[in-house]
Amino acid sequence: MRAATKAASAPVRNRCNRTQRRTKRRVNILLINDEFYMTGASAALYDLAMHLKGVGHAVSVMPRVDGDGVMRQRYIDAGIPITTSANGIDLVIANTISLGDNVAKFGAQFPIIWWLHEAEIGRAMILRTPAHADGFRRAAHIVFQTDFQKEVYHSFLYDTRTETSVIPFWSEAVYQKRPTRQKSKTGKRRIVAIGTIEPRKRISDVVMAVEMLHDKNLIECLFIGKDYNLLEPPILEIIRKNPNRYQLLGEQPAASTLEYLASADAFVLASDSESQPLSLFEAFELGIPVCLSSLETYRHVGIMHGIHGLMHPVGNVPMLAANLRTVLGDPIVRSNLAKGAKLLIDTKRKVDWKVSFERVIERVWNQRRAVTPVAAATEPEKARTSATA
């Protein structure tokens, strides 16, 4: 009884050791990512890779689109091989909706776990590229971040036998080396927005909202991400004419991104589609007040207006401007939002998401091992049955 009590009270950091003892064998795991640029999804896959390597699995990574990027060097520094083939692989983890056709291809050869990070935008991508939908039938297991995603993809799941899990995750970097909060050297109040600069992130809304503020000359905005060419020409012109107010910093290393976030007076996420943004949880942990669009997914995550952040309807620029004015100008509101958000993320961190994910891996692998001997022994019979059908 004393041993059981001691195990139950062990801290999160010791759970990895217990998981390692549960795993019956070393599994060769291939991680397939979209590209090597920095996104919340790619950062989460890297954190999972480090965990799996740490508990004794053999881990390699393959990009869907090869090329340079911040994440490539991180894998190299961690000693995780970058490969172009699946030779010697036992199990595959495919990251993001854009890997749907790869899931369909690899699913016929290996047990494959599909980790979906997108919500409505993922459904739209499937409508544009129907081949992605084949992944729902071929995956051995699908991992979502929120229950909302299960609702979004319900029409692709209802006629499949694919198992699913919901595993919320958060950033590891913010806990490994906490960034030092440094105020702006200009003395201006700083707004930070992080993410690939694309229509979904609605960076244009942030620019237009700041332009509506009467004290906009006392504000500086830092935009971290790539694909600035997707911004509308009028917005790019505003940014060009006001270099002291708007800075496009491009893609940044994880440590630099966290330092910029820690220096913010407000973090803005005006997206029209999200599932569980990694940068949002990082802002919560760092005590940075948040202005964000009012999306259905946030209700499933547990984020509430006025408690964890100030929300505005998607595209409602005047309300976003009003929320920014409140967050930047009212210290009581700032303090209350920071406390509420920190409490939310602390509650979620009581369960180690990486250990939960490894349980999924163990389940999928054990199911495959149970089926494989029988399948191999009855291959001729399967062929005859298929021909008869």
Task: Explain briefly what this protein structure is.
Keywords: Transferase. This protein is of the alpha/beta class.
Kindly describe this structure.
This is Glycosyltransferase. The protein starts with a helix and ends with a helix. It is globular, with a radius of gyration of 23 Å. The chain contains 19 helices and twelve strands. Residues 1-23 and 373-389 have low confidence and may be disordered. Helix 15 links the parallel strand 11 (290-293) and strand 12. It is an alpha/beta fold. The strands form two sheets. Strands 2-1-3-4-5-6 form a six-stranded parallel beta sheet, sandwiched between helices. It has a six-stranded parallel beta sheet with strand order 9-8-7-10-11-12, with helices on both faces. Helix 11 (203-211) crosses helix 16. It has two domains: 2-170 and 350-388, Glycogen Phosphorylase B (Rossmann fold, 3-Layer(aba) Sandwich), CATH 3.40.50; 175-348, 3-Layer(aba) Sandwich (Rossmann fold), CATH 3.40.50.2000.
